[in-house]
Write a structure and sequence with these properties.
The complex is a heterodimer of chains A (about 290) and B (about 625). Chain A is built from twelve helices and one strand; from the N terminus they run ααβαααααααααα. Chain A has about 290 residues and is mainly alpha-helical. The chains are: A mainly alpha (about 290), B mainly alpha (about 625).
Chain lengths: ~290, ~625
């Protein structure tokens, strides 16, 4: 990889939190419009984060800030793996470290709410990580490579051969974004039973770090989804944005389900969507 | 002569030291023997690695001694079976005694030219046995002191304990060097004996019962070996493994390898033989640490690694792969359900061995490399975890992980070691994850028709593995508000064993590329084309790559910046939000709306309502049995 390309990849990785933050602004604006409110300005998430950063620091233990930064840090490493066109499995595993930093930080405070949120976040991971892994394996079966470079070299749009696998990624996206019906671990709308779930015990700068990490992860996932139309990045971005808007729509249409329903949905519908796709390709002699 | 001496040291020294620790009644003298043995074994395994393999013919005296000891062993097993009214033990020992006598004296087929053959695979196993195994024995010095202190024994039984621990190391080394099926069988039976004696060490009724279970399951492997000797001798007129592997694959030889696979399943606790390894946890923890990391269970996968190259493309190898996949997935799900620390670790061992078995069964250069990688890294990480679990158990007196809540505040050193061990089991950039990554690549690369079910099982198992380790880590780090961490006192043997193994664990993970290029690839190269190249300290498979060093650098950077930030911004430690008025100066109690004081209580996540353990266990036994039946039907048809 030459010098400029390296620079672009690095810049892109560092820009993921900003892209994610803007998308969160879009989310708040659109959700407000769906609920017939005006909604905050687009840059509101950034104002919020800045304000949080300046608040008087309060922590649950000395470990919490390290883990909060670990969430952001490893999310950035995962983003870097994507922009440098590395192995998708590694992206998944490194994102896993980020998630574990978040959940362990939540467990770190002896609070029932953050504990409950942390446990549900683990369940969320148990729900969507295997689906993502299976989707990546489906990509491997088509392209012969687990690397993002391999997807680019494959040339043809993956969406055309893996349509239902993309649909499975939709479920993953909803869980990742912590949107209804799968916002079980840290919903913004479940104060009575969860307070703020996995986020309850973060405040000030640790909360800001967690927000940044969340944005980074969102942007990374959307970048991965855009790979389903790798030959033309604009179409790819269009696909991931469409799915992002669909997730917002679903969020406003459906009530929250239990974690059992979430697990059952991904482990049945999610798996089935990918397996059926692969079976069809095998039967058709494509792979 | 030099190499011969090293071989003699690796087999002989543990036996001599075992006898010495049986005779010595002084605690310090025994500790001295253990330290010295460990040091010599570590050095001699490294030297052996340096000089490489050899083939060895031994004089007739050794052969006679092995025959005599073997009969003594079988008679002892029968005596045990008779004493404890175990018809399985009696019948299975008898089923070996008579055929072995017939084979030895009537057929006279036991003589082999090359009795011992040491190759790269044996050397890797020796490295694991001598380094990890020795550290576990050192660890046991502290553990057994505390253990006997808790039991209030009048007379120490440690002499007996260390005898069998050390003997097991010697027997394992003998096992991995044996080329004669008869010698292999003999050492196999010695490991079964050590396992039996160590499990029943505490002498309780439960210990005796579980020891008998382990014994008769182990003896099934012995019977399989005896049968393999007959069939193999019939096919190639020799019971040398090298001869059998060199001969063209015939129906008879396939049956030999199927029998060897059956024996391997018993040792590696694959379904339906998993119950003995779960039962083995009644023994003092060093026993579990030894069985699960460096000895016993590795004997099974060693056997499979040995025979795999010659059964490429047969039905047999696919059945082995399927067995591994089923074991991996079901045990990983069952591990979620467990609350007893050693039981979680036991399920994790069985599961990881299943993954290794799966890789061996796939039987390609890539999957074989994955299997060897997993074997090496698993033994180190699992040794660490069991030793940590043992320390915790002795210090807080509970194996229930619900009682381990917030252990990081109470036993920070041990808990940190355990967390490091857990992280190295399932997260990058550690070696186990590298192995799993190669394994996923290997499974995904197999033809789809049988590859797809295996892929699916691996995906489910991996998800469950992440879940049960991650929630455990989370639970250990719950820190009650204001709790001060104060380092616990760890006795010297504990520190030596835990810190050394932790160091080894990190070193081999950072230097994973070196491990792969210098140890794993040469082993693979004996029968396959190795697929893992190691440019720039990373691992490259051609179609994808794992940048080991950049990942370590990134991980270290994240932790460093995080710590710096935590120092810079700091913050006052505050009470958690409990949705009520927190009661002052109590850790986590709060006033409810009904004006009563309630302590916030949490308990672990075991998905008890979603996972039916009994049902899954029964499924495991049925499936395992069905797979083994399929294994033999496939050879006959």
């Amino acid at each position: 990889m030459d010098y400029t390309a390296t620079l672009i990849s690095a810049m892109l990785a560092l820009a993921t939190p900003i892209i994610g933050g803007l998308l969160m602004g879009v989310d708040r604006k659109l959700t407000a419009r769906m609920q017939e409110r005006v909604g905050p300005p687009l840059a509101q998430p950034f104002y919020d984060a800045l304000k949080l950063w300046g608040k008087a620091p309060m922590i649950s233990s000395g470990l919490q800030p390290v883990l909060a930064f670990g969430y952001l840090g490893f999310a950035l490493v995962a983003a870097g793996l994507v922009t440098f066109r590395q192995d998708l499995l590694l992206v998944l595993f490194v994102t896993g470290i980020a998630d574990i930093c978040l959940t362990v930080a939540a467990f770190n405070a002896k609070s029932p709410y953050s504990y409950l949120g942390g446990r549900r976040e683990f369940l969320a991971m148990l729900s969507y990580e295997p689906v993502m892994l299976l989707a990546y394996i489906a990509i491997f079966l088509v392209t012969g490579s687990f690397t993002i470079r391999g997807i680019y070299e494959y040339g043809a749009p993956l969406l055309l051969v893996l349509p239902t696998a993309v649909a499975a990624m939709m479920i993953v996206l909803v869980i990742e974004m912590k949107k209804s019906p799968f916002d079980v671990s840290g919903s913004g709308h479940a104060h009575q039973e969860l307070v703020r779930g996995v986020f309850t015990e973060f405040s000030g700068y640790t909360m800001a770090l967690i927000e940044l990490g969340h944005w980074t992860k969102l942007a990374t996932t959307l970048m991965i989804i855009s790979l389903f139309w790798a030959p033309n990045p604009l179409v790819g971005a269009g696909i991931s944005l469409t799915m992002f808007f669909a997730a917002l729509l679903v969020d406003n249409l459906y009530p929250r389900l239990t974690w059992q329903r979430m697990l059952r949905t991904t482990w049945t519908v999610g798996f089935a969507l990918i397996l059926v796709n692969v079976a069809a390709l095998a039967a058709g002699g494509v792979i | 002569m030099y190499t011969e001496t090293l071989i003699a040291v690796n087999i002989g020294l543990p036996v001599v030291s075992a006898l010495a620790s049986l005779v010595l009644s002084d605690r310090r003298a025994r500790a001295g023997v253990v330290y010295l043995t460990a040091a010599v074994l570590v050095v001699s395994s490294l030297l052996l690695y340096n000089v490489g393999g050899l083939e060895l013919n031994l004089g007739g005296g050794f052969e006679i001694a092995v025959v005599a000891l073997d009969f003594a062993l079988l008679l002892y097993f029968m005596y045990q079976g008779f004493m404890y009214r175990s018809w399985q033990v009696l019948a299975l020992s008898l089923a070996q005694l008579i055929p072995v006598a017939y084979f030895e004296f009537i057929v006279e087929g036991a003589h082999v030219e090359k009795i011992l053959v040491v190759d790269n695979l044996s050397i890797l196993l020796t490295l694991i046995i001598n380094i990890v195994g020795s550290l576990v024995v050192i660890y046991a010095l502290s553990y057994m002191e505390e253990h006997e202190h808790h039991l209030h024994l009048e007379r120490s039984r440690q002499g007996r304990f260390f005898f069998y621990m050390l003997l097991l190391l010697g027997a394992m080394n003998g096992l991995v060097y044996s080329n004669s099926l008869y010698w292999l069988y003999f050492f196999w039976e010695v490991t079964t004996l050590c396992c039996y004696e160590l499990i029943r060490h505490d002498g309780t009724e439960e210990a005796q019962g579980n020891a008998l279970l382990a014994l008769w399951m182990g003896l099934i492997g012995g019977v399989a070996f005896v049968a393999a000797m007959f069939v193999g001798y019939n096919a190639v007129h020799s019971i040398a493994l090298t001869e059998m592997m060199a001969a063209p694959l015939s129906q008879g030889l396939l049956l030999v390898f199927a029998l060897a696979a059956l024996a391997a399943f018993t040792k590696s606790a694959q379904f339906p033989f998993h119950s003995w390894l779960l039962g083995a946890m009644v023994a003092p923890t060093p026993v579990s640490a030894l069985l699960h990391s460096s000895t016993m269970v590795n004997a099974g996968v060693y056997m499979l690694l040995r025979i795999a190259p010659v059964v490429q493309g047969t039905t047999l190898t696919y059945i082995v792969a399927f067995m591994g996949a089923v074991t991996f997935t079901v045990t990983s799900v069952l591990a979620i359900r467990q609350r007893v620390s050693k039981r979680i670790l036991a399920f994790s061992t069985i599961g990881n061995l299943g993954l290794i078995t799966l890789c061996i069964g796939l039987n390609t250069g890539l999957s074989y490399g994955a299997a060897v990688t997993l074997l090496a890294f698993h033994s180190v990480a699992k040794g660490l975890l069991f030793m940590g679990a043992g320390v915790v158990e002795n210090k807080i007196g509970s194996r229930d992980i619900d009682d381990w809540e917030g252990l990081l505040g109470r036993l920070p050193l041990t808990t940190a070691v355990m967390i490091a061990g857990m992280v190295s089991m399932f997260l990058p950039p550690f070696g186990m994850l590298l192995g799993k990554w190669v394994a996923v690549d290997a499974v995904a690369s197999t033809p789809l028709l049988y590859g797809l079910p295996l892929v699916f099982l691996v995906v489910l198992g991996s998800g469950a593995t992440t879940f049960y380790y991650a929630k455990w880590i989370g639970y250990l780090t719950v820190l009650p508000n204001g709790a001060k961490m104060s380092a616990e006192r760890l006795e010297t043997p504990y520190r030596v064993a835990l810190y050394t193994l932790l160091g080894v664990n990190v070193l081999i993970s950072v230097g994973a590329a070196l491990v792969l290029s210098n140890i794993v690839n040469p082993i693979t190269a004996a029968s396959y084309t190795p697929q893992m190249s190691t440019p720039m300290g990373g691992v490259d498979l051609g179609f994808t790559s794992f940048p080991v060093l950049p990942l370590w650098a990134a991980g270290a950077a994240v932790l460093l910046i995080g710590s710096w930030l935590a120092k810079m911004k700091g913050g006052a430690i505050t009470t958690p939000y409990l949705s009520g008025e927190n009661v002052a100066d109590k850790e986590v109690t709060f006033m409810t709306t009904g004006d009563s004081e309630v302590a916030a209580n949490m308990s672990g996540t075991y998905l008890a309502s979603s996972i039916d353990e009994e049902w899954l266990d029964r499924l495991a036994v049925y499936l395992g049995t069905a797979i083994i039946v399929a294994l033999f039907i496939a050879e006959v048809v």
